[in-house]
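quick one, 250 residues, struct below
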Amino acid sequence: MEGKAIIQAEGLTKRYGTQTAVNNLQLQIQEGEVFGFLGPNGAGKTTTLLMFLGLTEPTSGKVSVLGFDPVREPFKVKEKVGYLPENVGFYDDMDARQNLRYIARLNRISDEIAEKRIDYWLEMVGLSGEASKKVGTYSKGMRQRLGIAEVLIKEPKLLFLDEPTIGLDPDGTNRMLDLIHSLSREKNITLFLSSHLLDQVQRICDRVGIMINGHLVAIGPIEELAKKKLGVNQQDYTLEEIYMKYFKEA
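---
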């Protein structure tokens, strides 16, 4: 994809004592793309994300996020970036609107603007009819959808999603994937998606990167990785086949 780099990592390395969690990461994420970040547990994905968010400092190398250094300018990064963890936290004794109003005020969004955004995003994630219910009564899937609305309240330029469809039924999953795709195509939000559900990654991601043992062993459009690793030109492959090939050879 062409465009300006939203994330640019050069030689990014993180060590914990004698253990290297991320080793010499070279990575560029372009504006407006949906990037899938894959790898087994312990591969270094979470550590990479923490460095991008300014929550842990690299041992060496450098990274730029939206033109800012997450180490020196963490608050500027957080102003422009949204992050949806796998397990989203809310105030369970408050309803959906109250939770979103609270987040909006933390982000210094005026009440007038916040109310319009709250109405819009509750509709987009399919929770308008459930907005007055206490979040403590929500299912896991409903909480996940509310989490999407929460991170979008501040209209981020870059959005990190960690297993965004966990707990969703098939209809909810389809709606979530369609929403993620529309955020990229219609609102030019850059999305960095971490998931173990490879069929979903294959459906919506422009490119993928595969991390194994702290190394980025593959990066590119899925069809290019299929041609390189499986020797196929047609779409008679799955991302899981590509992933397992890299995993077994690592």
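The first strand starts at residue 5 and ends at 16.
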